[in-house]
Structures are given as structure tokens and as C-alpha cells.
Amino acid sequence: MPFLSRIVEDLDNALSHDPVARNRLEVALAYPGVHALWGHRISHLLWKCRLKLIARMHSNFIRSATGIEIHPAATIGRRFFIDHGMGVVIGATTIIGDDVMIYHDVTLGARAFVQGKRHPTIENNVVIGAGARIIGDITIGHGARISANVVITKDIPAQSTLESSEFFVI
What is the mean pLDDT of residues 152-160? Predict the structure, then answer.
């Protein structure tokens, strides 16, 4: 997809997910979740080109500017939206599908210090509530809805709705 078309898609996606967003210009200038996504795309490209130190430096700059930390090695699909992104952490081996929305203070983190895949896989059309912690090499299935402030350390099946009363402890 051409570069400009992807930017427009990101702006329109933000407009469709945030009822108070008024126009593309406002989103482009004032939405840190969009800025973090754009920054990640640059960092990820640098990472894939084996410019890993530059990628890490760029991602650290984006983190300091937005409050959102996305490792340059993380893989993120299309139409990803971070609403009120402060405190979001996305680890290196995380894979995020298309049409995923997460709220502030979400961690997609590792459970163990090991080589290889150690962060979650988030399939398409998932919504993750504020403060959720999804830890380890687990999968959140297609269309799942994750409530706020839950800790998840086990796979969640597709089309599931996980309420805060269903709490998975490490």
C-alpha cells in the first residue's frame, strides 16, 4: 500500500474509533497513539534493515515523546489504534493483527527471560481494555474482548469476552 494511503488509513481509523476526534488534521497533530504507530513503522523498518541501534534510539525518542513504548522488532498489522496511549508497552516478539484497539496502560510483555518468542500474539479484531496485562507467549484469539485491569497468562479463545472478574494470575 502506498505510503500516503497508509497514513490516510491510520487517520480515518482513529476517527472511526474516537467519537471526539473532529478531523484528520486534529488526529495527525494531536494523537500520540497515531504518532507512536507512525514512529514504530519507521523504527521497524530500520530494525528490518539491520540498523538496530538506530531503530532502538528512534523508538526511545518516540517513547519519550508519546509515553508509548513499542519495541522496533514488534510486528503490528493495519488499522491498529491506541487510545489514550500513556503507559502502553509492547514487547519485542509481540505480533498484533489487523483492526486491533488498545487503551492506555496496557502491557504486552514477556513472562520469562528466554530466547525466541516470549510475548503475546494478538489476532485480528481484538479490543484490550485499559490497564490489562497480557504476559507471555500466548494468543488472544480473533475478535476477543479483554476487559480493563486483567492479567492474562493463558490463551484466550476467539470471540471470547473476558470480564475483570475472570482474573488469570501468573
Answer: 95
pLDDT tens per residue across span 45-56 = 999 999 999 999
Between helix 3-17 and helix 32-48 the angle, nearest 10°, is: 140
Question: Which residues, at least 6 apart from 130, have a Cβ–Cβ distance to it below 8 Å?
Answer: 84, 103, 104, 105, 106, 148, 149
SS3 156: strand
CA distances from 86 to 22, 130, 131, 158 (A): 21, 10, 10, 27
Q: Whose CA is closest to 69, among 32, 101, 116?
A: 32
What per-residue confidence (pLDDT) applies to 164?
64
The reported pTM is 0.92
Question: Contact at 8 Å (CB) between 74 and 40?
Answer: yes
- Residue pair 121/98 in contact (Cβ under 8 Å)? The answer is no
Q: How far apart are CA 146 and CA 162, in angstroms?
A: 5
What are the grid coordinates assigned to 79, written together?
488499522
